[in-house]
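hey so u asked for the seq, here:
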Amino acid sequence: MSKATLTSKGQITLPAEVRGALRVGTGDTLIFEKTAADAFLVRAASGDIRRLKGVVPAPATPVALETMEAAIRRRASRK
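ran it, structure tokens below
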């Protein structure tokens, strides 16, 4: 278990173990989500874009660039 101390300015320093697990560093944003009366879930709101690799599966068949552009134009014309 990691712990941190709250300063008089309401600031804490996240222990290295927590920063490593969340994969956050200087300038990254954290989200605190209340889950119970006395509990919060802490999540990284920003991070390395490479973590998204593989989230969306590749299409079963390749799509030509021209086909994608035509679909974008059709969708944009509906607005």
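The chain is about 25% helix and 15% strand. The longest strand covers residues 30-36.
lmk if thats what u needed
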